[in-house]
Amino acid sequence: MDFATFASQFLIGLSRGMIFFIVSAGLTLVFGVLRVSNFAHGSLYMLGAFLAYTAILWLGQGEAGFWLALLIAPLAVAVIALVIERGLLRFIYKREHLMQMLLTYSLVLIFGDLVKMVWGSDYKSLPVPQALTGSFHFLEANLPVYNAFLLLIGPLVALGLWFFLFRTHLGKLCRATAADREMVDVLGQNSTWIFALVFALGGWLAGLGGALIAPTVNIAMGMDANIIIYAFLIVVVGGLGNVWGALISSLIMGVGESLGVLFIPDFAIILPYLIAGVLLIIRPSGLLRSAW
Question: Which pLDDT belongs to residue 47?
Answer without folding.
Answer: 96
